[in-house]
Write a structure and sequence with these properties.
CATH superfamily: Metal-dependent hydrolases
Largest sheet: 8 strands, parallel
Order of helices and strands: EHEHEHEHEHHEHEHEHH
Strand order of the largest sheet: 1-2-3-4-5-6-7-8
Distance between the termini: 15 Å
Strand content: 15-25%
Number of helices: 10
CATH topology: TIM Barrel
CATH class: Alpha Beta
Oligomer: single chain
Helix content: 40-55%
C-alpha cells in the first residue's frame, strides 16, 4: 500500500529490534522502502539490507554534513556500490547550511561531483537541502535532471521553489513535519502541487509525525503523512498511497 521513499532503518537506533521491525512492515502496509545512505558505512549497510529483504531498495551517497573529510577514494567506492543489485539512486546528497561552522565550498564541491555521478550512471538522485535553497538550485540547474529524475527529500522550501524543481524534472517528498502545527508553508505546498509530483517518507528514525512526535520514527508511520495529505487534498488515504507509490516506483525505476 505505501512506499516509504526515504528511511534509515540501518541506523543504530534500530540495533535493538531491526529485523523484528522490518519483518513486521508488510503487515502494516509497507510494500516498498528506500533505505538511504548518508556516508560510506551507511551506504554499505543499505546495500546489505536491500539484499536481505525483497521490499527494501538502496540509495548510496555522502550527506553534505559528512563531506568535510571526503576523498576521491570515497567517491570511487560510492560508484562501485552502485553496481550492486537493488541500488536505485544516488543519495542523500546536497547542501546543509544549518550550522555556522559548515564548509560551504567543500559541500558544494562534493554535491557537484555526486551529481556528475548521477548523470554519468543515469541514476536518479535524492537531495538533502537544509537552509541552502538558492545554492542548491544553482547546482541543480547545471544538470539535465529530466534525464535522471530526482527528489527533494523532506521538502521544506516555498511553493515557488517546489514549482521550479518540478519544472526541472524533479519531484518533492513530504515527511512527518507536514503534520506539525507550524507547518503552514509545507501544507500550502501540498495543497497546490499535483499529487503526481509528490512522494511520502518518514526519514526514520527522525522526524516522527504527530501524534508520535518525539518518539523514534519508523517506516509504518508513513501512514500519518499520507493521511495528512489525503485530508489536505480531499482524497482517500488509499488514493494517496496508490499514487505516491506509483510515483516512487517510477522515479526509482522499480518494476
Amino acid at each position: 500500500m505505501f512506499f516509504d521513499s526515504h528511511s534509515h532503518v540501518d541506523d543504530e537506533m534500530f540495533n535493538i529490534d531491526r529485523d523484528e521491525l522490518i519483518l513486521s512492515l508488510p503487515e502494516k502496509g509497507i510494500d516498498f522502502l528506500m533505505n538511504v545512505g548518508s556516508d560510506l558505512p551507511s551506504s554499505r549497510r543499505a546495500v546489505i539490507l536491500a539484499k536481505r529483504y525483497p521490499f527494501i531498495y538502496a540509495a548510496v551517497g555522502i550527506h553534505p554534513s559528512d563531506t568535510s573529510d571526503m576523498t576521491d577514494d570515497d567517491l570511487a567506492e560510492i560508484i562501485a556500490l552502485t553496481q550492486e543489485k537493488k541500488v536505485q539512486a544516488i543519495g542523500e546528497i546536497g547542501l546543509d547550511y544549518h550550522y555556522d561552522n559548515t564548509n560551504r565550498e567543500l559541500q558544494k564541491k562534493w554535491f557537484d561531483k555526486q551529481m556528475q555521478v548521477s548523470q554519468e550512471l543515469n541514476l536518479p538522485f535524492i537531495i538533502h537541502d537544509r537552509d541552502a535553497h538558492q545554492d542548491c538550485l544553482d547546482v541543480l540547474r547545471k544538470y539535465d535532471i529530466k534525464k535522471t529524475g530526482g527528489v527533494m527529500h523532506c521538502f521544506s522550501g516555498s511553493l515557488d521553489m517546489a514549482k521550479e524543481v518540478i519544472k526541472m524534472g524533479m519531484v518533492i517528498s513530504i515527511a512527518g513535519p507536514v503534520t506539525y502545527k507550524n507547518a503552514a508553508k509545507t501544507v500550502n505546498v501540498v495543497k497546490e502541487i499535483p499529487l503526481e509530483y509528490i512522494l511520502i517518507e518518514t526519514d526514520c528514525p527522525y522526524l516522527s509525525p504527530a501524534p508520535h512526535r518525539g518518539e523514534r520514527n519508523n517506516p509504518a508511520n508513513v501512514r500519518f503523512v499520507a493521511e495528512k495529505i489525503a485530508d489536505l487534498k480531499g482524497l482517500s488515504v488509499e488514493e494517496v498511497a496508490k499514487i505516491t507509490l506509483e510515483n516512487a516506483k517510477r522515479l526509482f525505476r522499480i518494476d
